[in-house]
Amino acid sequence: MSRRSIVAGNWKMNLDCAKAAELAQAVAGRHAEAGNVELVLCPPTAYLTTVGTALGLVHATSPSGVALGGQNMHDKSSGAFTGEVAPPMLVDVGCRFVILGHSERRTLFGETDGIVNAKTKAALAAGLTPIVCVGETLEEREANRTQAVVTTQINDSLAGLTPADVAKIVIAYEPVWAIGTGKVASPQQAQEVHALIRGLLASLASPAIADSVRIQYGGSVKPDNAAELAAQPDIDGALVGGASLKADDFLGIARAFA
Ligand code: PGA
């Protein structure tokens, strides 16, 4: 099965309104450079509408060929949850994707696999494609616990999903020690975990569905290391932090997956 690669930019809590619009326009104007690669921009919540407008989004359609995504969301549709954003709100401003369970959410904001599971179900119910993030810390890798940690994260974050739901998600494998550190996993280290994840998806859904799910690598992906990652059989794209803040770098990474 040939999977369409997907490269997403996680802008985290960076940029300002004008710079967000400028970056979105630059990526949208040059998206053809990425060929058939699906491109997603995930700006801060405050700039979703600005970026959506810059991308020319009309609700969930994307004439520019670049999709919009949130970086997080609540699992409820509305209510007294001060400071949160609801899944239908993301849809309303043109999002088709949402990053869930990023390691910064897990580490700094106490998100457990149970919370990620509730959010994943809520995203799917709202019609969003969740990008579910997993990955081990350096301590866990050094203790040879990578496989056990990732297995638990996948099984618990996706618990109770139907095979049809599993077919709709994107997974991002992001070793925590590689995020924002400049230390990228070797292509072999990444491939090994991607293959493990695909095996877990086969058990949760079916081998055919596992074969169709895109699994991104994330953690210090740059234009100069993207090609060797892209060459691995189970790496289907990238979730890019720092390098997604420059159109040249983001598109350079996307081209490696084309
Ligand atoms: P990085 O971040 O590319 O800056 O390492 C990746 C991420 O956190 O998604």
Q: How would you characterize the overall build of this protein?
A:
With 258 residues, this protein is α/β, with parallel strands linked by helices. The chain has one domain (6-256): Aldolase class I (TIM Barrel). Helices cover 42% and strands 16% of the residues. It is built from twelve helices and eight strands. The chain has an eight-stranded parallel barrel with strand order 1-2-3-4-5-6-7-8, surrounded by seven helices. α7 (146-157) packs parallel to α9 (187-204) and α11 (223-230) packs parallel to α12 (247-256). The model has no long low-confidence stretch (mean pLDDT 96). The structure holds 2-phosphoglycolic acid (PGA). 2-phosphoglycolic acid (PGA) binds next to β8. 2-phosphoglycolic acid is lined by residues 10, 174, 179-180, 218-221, 239-243.
Number of strand elements: 8
Q: Quickly count the domains.
A: 1
CATH class: Alpha Beta
Poorly predicted tracts of residues: none
> In one word, what is the shape?
globular
Major sheet: arrangement of strands? 1-2-3-4-5-6-7-8
Instruction: Assign the CATH topology.
Output: TIM Barrel
Termini, distance in Å?
A: 16 Å
Q: Considering DSSP H and I runs of 4 or more, what fraction of the residues is helical?
A: 40-55%
CATH 2nd-level architecture: Alpha-Beta Barrel
- Which kinds of small molecule does this entry bind, naming each only once? 2-phosphoglycolic acid
Largest sheet: number of strands, sense, barrel closure: 8 strands, parallel, barrel
Question: How confident is the prediction overall: mean pLDDT?
Answer: 96
